[in-house]
Amino acid sequence: MRITVTVDGTAYTDDVEPRLLLVHYLREVVGKTGTVVGCDTSNCGSCTVHLDGRSVKSCSVLAVQADGREVTTVEGLARDGELHPVQRAFHDNHALQCGFCTPGMIMQAIDLLADDPDPDERAVRHGLEGNLCRCTGYQNIVRAVRDAAHRMRPGAGPEAERVAGQMVGGE
Amino acid sequence: MTTTAEPEVGRARLRKEDARLVTGRTRWTDNLTLPGLLHLAFLRSPVAHARITAVDTEEARRMPGVIAVFTGRDLAAAQGSLPCAWPITPDQKAPPAPPLAVDQVNFAGEAVAVVVARGAAQAQDALVGIDVTYADLPVVLDLASAAADSDLVHPDLGTNRSARWVFDSAEAGTGGDVDAAIGAAEVLIERTYRQQRLIPAFMEPRSVVVDPTGEQLTMWSATQIPHILRLMLALTTGTPEHKVRVIAPDVGGGFGGKLQVTPEEVVAMVVAQRIGKPVKWTETRSESLLSAHHGRDQLQKLTLAARRDGTVTGLKVELLADMGAYLRLVTPGVPILGAFMFNAIYKFPAYRFECTNVFTTKVPTDAYRGAGRPEATYAIERLMDELAVELGRDPIEVREQNWIKHDEFPFTTVAGLEYDSGNYEAATARAKELLGYDALRAEQRERRARGDVVQLGIGTSTFTEMCGLAPSRVLGALSYGAGGWEHAQIRMLPSGKVEVVTGSSAHGQGHETAWSQIVADQLGVPFEDVEVLHGDTQISPRGLDTYGSRSLTVGGMAVLKAGEKVIKKARRVAAHLMECAEDDLEFAGGRFTVRGTERSTGITDVALAVFAAHDLPDGVEPTLDSEATFDPDNFSFPHGTHLCAVEVDTETGFTRIRKYACVDDVGKVVNPIIVEGQVHGGLAQGIAQALYEEAIHDESGTLTTGTLADYLVPSAADLPHFDTDRTETPSTTNQLGAKGVGEAGTIASTPAVVNAIVDAVRHLGVNDVEMPCTPYRVWAAINGANPSTPSTTPAPGGGLGSVTPTEPTGGTA
Q: Where would I find the 2Fe-2S ferredoxin-type domain in this sequence (chain A) (predicted)?
């Protein structure tokens, strides 16, 4: 099937097998290897991307379902050489070790902040429940997400991905 | 260059590694693609124990995109036998371990055939075209009956018992006779504990790419051990070592799970060589859980002898350790790493450890975070709580009565190790303060008095571990197949930049940052000017890789030693350039200064002068580059006190961690945020053993926890906030004063949690709950029911925040 998908701002048109998963389309056809596959039962969340601005596990979406839609991956978050505030917060709070879960965790955290711009610890923990990390014990991830929330006032989410540059702030 | 105002070592530097990782500019093995790359898929045995009577691959060969199909018989002459580097006894029994099974399968998940196809999906599709006929053999699952040779896993060996390994303090001359101590004991604590089987469950599934087309065959692999792998590939396949290059690019976690020479690596290499084209294999998560090695899985029979006044007098440990179906790289040595740790921080006068390694028809076990030491720590820390109960005393008080006091170091233990330093009093005092120990004890009494449905329990774990694996002569004495040194090289570039080559192979530990800090301080160069290179046997030719909390204490020391050589070489040239004696030069902040003058030159200026080589002293080589191989004299011994308060709902058996406080002493710290991160991650894995995780095989030997929906790696919602702090008692066995931190949290936390649960419900007649302490097991313990042991299905509700009846609130706010 022929599909056209906008990935990180660039439109791609490809012929794909109907069974091709979005994550495999991103990795193998478009070359967006920043998004990774960590499981085969949609438990780990490593493959989380945004589809029209909201998080999806790209292992649970077919490439053909993304036809005509916009996908944002972790590779498309930075603006004008500036990291997205959530990326910056992950770095500043040592919220990653091996980094394999990090792209999915960041994409899910942005989605979480779109729904709740100032989540408490419990809300962050539950909002990230579908994303597994084996290295950090989550404490610094929770810290990073709350830190990012403060930097991103008044809110995150789809808007933040469209706005260039000026997301720096907070402490 | 000026003296850095703030030393780099000890500073909370944010990691260099992060910039790529948070933006997706990563180089996982599975990202790699090569021209004409072919893909592998493995057919795995659905049965745990069977003879292979026939394999028909014809249909698979005709399927779209398929290039070739190989069975174990096809590769038998080339694939060799997977290596085991640790024969713990001279008469250890080990079966051949073909990467692809040839005549017999011995665990469900064992690879029996491999498809090579143009696409990964095509390779996967073709697996259904392979028809294997199995003649079932009796499965061997229960550890105790396996040890009794009920049915044999490997009939040719004549027994399931691979080896028996004994340490006895009376025989070793390090202590008394334990049976005499037991005979004379005023108090005896006898317990049997089960260390359930765990799965390392690194987040990045294993992946391997082999390119056979160069002069050297190149393998990229998601491995912790590129150097060991290279040597083992050569020894296993007969390809000369100098014709093999191994690259570990970005590696997404390991925890011991990637400390292995895997069947798939060897098969990928052999197949690539046979076809002459590059090949790739990336496992699915289900394949990973089903076939990558597991960890733990021991039965521990324990006897602790003590006097009525609380003084411990003897400890006897009898272990059965489940090897699974084969001996992988260090499988038999894992329980032996615990042999010296059961006596822990306590002054036992007599000690005996014996371990029988046993084959079963299950996935092979091998290293998993802590490897042997969590099992030992669990046993002794559970026993110390039981002793306190028997004596009617506070568990911390009984520990303190028996532990090595801070002014007694160095202390030679009953297991023959010399603990260099420690301060258990300081760590414990701080941990009690952090937890609010006395207030929680008061609350516990109050809840108990009013018969609250939710009871509070407090668990203690005052642990130590042996880290910094390892002095080579000790490994030799334990019959390990290699040494324990580490290698480093420092290259001084003419522009003033520095390259550090390390044999340590990071996969999340932050070596690039920490090594840069060490070298920046030592050579007086900016942190940003240091590049750390690793993980490629062509760039980093010597190394023994990353495991056993060894990187800083051994690999970091090698870096420091290489730096000393650079300074020594530079000093001679600097003296020549400034026309003074070497002894007149002081080196600080990156500059050589002529004592008592203003004259000085920077080490990077010397590097440029050496590069030009126009004016060097006679007989001096034009290079400052230096390398060093560091072999430690002793292990290091991190310690700490972990305290856990839990609330147990006595009606549902549900456990909630109310507060977790720990104080670790890992010696001098290079980077406190990295250390804290290691502690957090370690805690998560240790707590997960206590509450959530268990690899379960059903009665036919099928792994029933073969997905992340069944194997309960905890999510953020399943874990509490951790209150962590440190005391700092420098190690005296290395110049850095460092002790290692990679495994501490995992080793310490498991008994703290289980002790807390038992403490919460002890008054209801409970003196043990088997791990993982699922709501059902806790409820059953309270109600005197007997949960099936070992269970064959995952327990409901053990983890996954979404199904928990009480939300973890976490935090201390």
A: 1-77
